[in-house]
Amino acid sequence: MTAPLLELDDVRTHFPVYKGALFERQVGTVRAVDGVSFTLARGEVLGLVGESGCGKSTLARTIVRLVPPTSGAIRFEGRDLAALSQAEMRRIRPRLQMVFQDPYASLNPRMTVFDAIAEPMRAHRLCRAGELAGRVADLMDRVGLARRLVRKYPHEFSGGQRQRIAIARALALNPALILADEPVSALDVSVQAQILNLIARLCAESELSLVLISHDLGVVHHLADRIAVMYLGRIVEIGPAGRVFHRPLHPYTRALISAIPEPDPERERHRARMLLRGDPPSPLHPPAGCPFHPRCPFAVEACAAAAPGLAPYPGFDGQAACIRLDAVERGASRGVSRGTPAS
């Protein structure tokens, strides 16, 4: 069996919170990523979804070592990134790249498109100076931008064009893995489809592995091979994209899917919705036991006792972190919704 390209083993990223101007002391810890484990195969697209603030972006930045992990192992092509020095990470960075949410913020406003795309190749000395122009032109073609635009600046482009530039820059180093952090959330709906189609085509052409981060399950469903659902720093469900989208296991996944609007107004008006109680807990003070139990319509007293780990459920491909999956399934078959608990 082929070894995975990326393997995360109980990765945690915690941020200490300090108080006091003169005598500073630690008063708490923000558990942004709190024990995440999964694998990613070569050429696979993994969708990572969840509400804003659940730790998706922090996890992506931890994988590429923009944020140091507190504990756990991040094995990329067999090497633990968490244990590497900065010099060793520099040699590996061309193999994993990141596309950020806001392309205007991630592009240097004083650099032309040519310089923005050529900069990583210059930094890692991947091609000679005389070959840069041809390489940049090829990358412009791949992302659907005219070559004549290479001397323009980021402010002269639309949001969708800027994101294409960011994708071209990520591709410049021939990476094996790209982490795309909400790459279409700042774009118009019509442009979102173009960028998603572009990402899908590039992944197919180059056999890239991709971690696509989004708060919209509908977006990742069309691109991902598997979907991982994240809540309060933890993965609560992971499985094949079609199964997770059409037959979700975890109650939080069901709530996310029920929030996706139906294109048919008549169906939208009459369909049952699963509305959650309250707001997501703070990662500074996470609840005991299952992190979702204060909002879960199926929660019982045992849910507050211990946090369940990911486990398979008979008849379903994938895993979910819930001790009440039988009740959730019975509730789904009876149409339980709007936060009504099942027996």
Features:
12 strands; alpha/beta; four-stranded antiparallel β-sheet; 343 residues; eight-stranded mixed β-sheet
Q: What is the H/E string? A: EEEHEEHEHHHHEHEHEEHHHEEH
Question: What fraction strand?
Answer: 15-25%
Rounded Rg = 22 Å
In the sheet with the most strands, the strands line up as: 6-7-8-3-9-10-12-11
Structural class: alpha/beta
Mean pLDDT: 89
Helix content: 25-40%
* End-to-end C-alpha gap: 43 Å
| Large-scale geometry | globular
Number of helices: 12
Describe, in plain words, how this protein is organized in 3D.
- There is one protein chain.
- With 343 residues, the chain is an alpha/beta fold.
- 31% of the residues lie in helices and 23% in strands.
- It is built from 12 helices and 12 strands.
- The strands form 2 sheets. It has an 8-stranded mixed sheet, with helices on both faces. A 4-stranded antiparallel sheet has the order 2-1-4-5.
- Helix 4 packs across helix 5 and helix 4 runs parallel beside helix 6.
- The protein is globular and about 70 Å long.
- The C terminus is likely disordered.
Q: Gist?
A:
With 343 residues, the chain is α/β, with parallel strands linked by helices.
